[in-house]
Input
Amino acid sequence: MNLIDKEFLNRNKKLLLIAFIIVFGSLIVGSIVGYFEAGDSYGEMSEMIAFSHEHNIKTNMSISENATSASEYFVHNFMVDIITMIGGILFSIFSVWNVLSSSFIAGHYIGQDFVFGLVSTLPHGIIEYIATVFALTIAFIITRREINIIKTRSFDGIKTDLKDIVILLVLDIIFLAIAAFIEAHVTPGIVSSVFGI
Output
């Protein structure tokens, strides 16, 4: 028996696409706004790190001193995704707002210094935000089921929706675990090698 049947994508492709557009669209918009708002201060973080490195000034960016474990990253991001999923009960209004605002803020951060933002975010961020797409899609499935129950007063199809939710939840957990590992163990090394810290 296949975990993911052939109809899984047909049932959910529109919701996955909408979630993808919301997540990555708000990241891109946030980056553009961050870039224009930065003005003369664009790239300050990269410049500050380079200046500190050239003049042997110790920064508080030491990787070993401020290391966060992969499990801490995973728990934090999974709790955020759980809140997004549960928001589906309230017709996904809070879920969409939560994702829009967090993606916009992350994009805004990247836009103020593309080099530092991408180096410190891109390695794990793409995988983490794909997991966010799964979480938001779960919220949309819950909302779709809720609307269907209100309209038809029937619970037909609830098993299929529950199966789809379980599949997306498993994918969310896998992607968040990979992203957490990369954020804890790979991203700091990339930042260190690029900026020499």
User: Anything to note?
Assistant: The helical segments are 7-38, 44-54, 70-86, 93-112, 114-152, 158-185, 187-195. The chain has a mean pLDDT of 89. Residues 10-59+69-195 form one domain. The longest helix spans residues 114-152.
